[in-house]
Amino acid sequence: MPSLANGLVVGHRKLSKDMYELEFIAPEIANECKPGQYINLKVGNELDPLLRRPLSLYDVDKRLGSITLLYKVVGKGTQILTRTKVKEYVDVMGPLGRGFKILEEKSNALLIGGGVGIAPLVYLARVLKDNNCNVQVLHGTDTKNNLVDFNKLEEIGVEYILATDDGSFGFKGFVTDFLKEKINPKEIDYIYCCGPEPMMAEVAKYALVNNIDGEVSLEEHMACGVGACLGCARKLKSKDELYVKVCKDGPVFNINEVELNK
Ligand SMILES: Cc1cc2nc3c(=O)[nH]c(=O)nc-3n(C[C@H](O)[C@H](O)[C@H](O)COP(=O)(O)OP(=O)(O)OC[C@H]3O[C@@H](n4cnc5c(N)ncnc54)[C@H](O)[C@@H]3O)c2cc1C
Ligand code: FES
């Protein structure tokens, strides 16, 4: 069951041009969190913006009761959020939604993130690694100025590869180019993906062609976050008239289940 809490902010820093990392303490929520789920955050203390903003669980430490978010400034709400200071409180609802499947130990997992879509994959990497899975993380971004801090992945001890569209860091090209050129599909048991939909559509095609199962995490504009307003409906691939609610049935879906916008 999701709960409401006032999270004490214990860390907030700018990572790159538009990316921030925010850490707060909310033990009752942290304790329930699973990778792929998200929280709904009230940004600021005013009536406007009224609606909460959904943000993924970037990292969770159940021992400390802390949750870390990675967010990109795109509009009014996230801009207001940048002004939050350490020792202030944030109004949090969560955890919400359905998270990722956790593989059995020794499985080979490939995690593919595009831009800020890396956010839910870091906590996932931690939990998979704790479950003795082999974890490889591919992260693609446009340029090195938008890279995030990878100390977390280093600390978790997973293999990670960076790709930049302009070649300013790591592999030059889209992360999907790296996938097709450098990854041996026979060595992957399961793919997890989050990022722009055209990228996820390419990954889904790769998974289908190579007969690899997996999951994608979708972003959709949300209002209630609990399945009441129908604001986040998405069509299923196989059944013409069947829609799912991203906030409640997702945000994680099977890689072959939902219609992805190319
Ligand atoms: C389940 C889920 C998890 C998410 N996790 C993260 C995360 O970990 N880090 C992160 O930075 N962002 C994440 N997002 C996206 C984040 O919620 C939006 O960027 C944020 O709500 C924008 O708020 P705003 O007030 O700054 O922008 P707004 O003023 O509301 O919008 C600014 C611009 O962003 C676009 N936009 C707003 N919301 C979305 C959305 N959900 N999908 C696509 N475009 C959108 C608008 O069309 C507009 O062009 C997630 C979204 C969902 C649904
Ligand atoms: S956001 Fe209201 S039903 Fe999904």
TrEMBL record:
The entry's keywords: 2Fe-2S, Electron transport, FAD, Flavoprotein, Iron, Iron-sulfur, Metal-binding, Oxidoreductase, Pyrimidine biosynthesis, Transport
Gene Ontology biological process terms in this record: 'de novo' UMP biosynthetic process
Stretches assigned to the FAD-binding FR-type domain: 2-102
Keyword check for Acetylation: no
Pathway connected to this protein: Pyrimidine metabolism; UMP biosynthesis via de novo pathway; orotate from (S)-dihydroorotate (NAD(+) route): step 1/1
Coiled coil: none
Cofactor note: Binds 1 [2Fe-2S] cluster per subunit. Binds 1 FAD per subunit.
PROSITE patterns on file: FAD_FR
Alphabetized GO MF terms: 2 iron, 2 sulfur cluster binding; electron transfer activity; flavin adenine dinucleotide binding; metal ion binding; oxidoreductase activity
Cofactor or coenzyme needed: [2Fe-2S] cluster; FAD
Binding site for FAD: R53, P54, L55, S56, G77, T78
Pfam hit, one: DHODB_Fe-S_bind
Binding positions for [2Fe-2S] cluster per the UniProt entry: C224, C229, C232, C247
Transmembrane segments: none
Family: Belongs to the PyrK family.
PANTHER family: DIHYDROOROTATE DEHYDROGENASE B (NAD(+)), ELECTRON TRANSFER SUBUNIT, DIHYDROOROTATE DEHYDROGENASE B (NAD(+)), ELECTRON TRANSFER SUBUNIT-RELATED
Subunit structure: Heterotetramer of 2 PyrK and 2 PyrD type B subunits.
Identification of the protein by name: Dihydroorotate dehydrogenase B (NAD(+)), electron transfer subunit
Organism: Candidatus Syntrophocurvum alkaliphilum
